[in-house]
Amino acid sequence: MKISLIKKVLEKSKSFKYWSKEIGLSFDDFSIGRFTKDKKFIQIIKQGKKDIGTYFIYLNEDNTINGVFYDMRNEIVRQHTLKTIGSE
Description:
Layout: H1 3-12, H2 14-23, E1 30-35, E2 42-46, E3 55-59, E4 65-69, H3 75-86
Parallel strand pairs: 1-3
Antiparallel strand pairs: 1-2, 3-4
């Protein structure tokens, strides 16, 4: 899967739209890695900026998206989550 296709898929996802709006997350913030055959290691394909946390897109060996990791340790994310929990 080409990086441009990954970007399109990510930008259509509800979770990405949400965090993009809340903390200004962009595709450039994400690193992209591909699992090795044995799934023990990840080969980095694209390095993210890491200026607002660590965000990762994991690809399977066949280049399909395995998952997306959002950095919940980011202070802005944590504060927003606490506000949301507190208002429930």
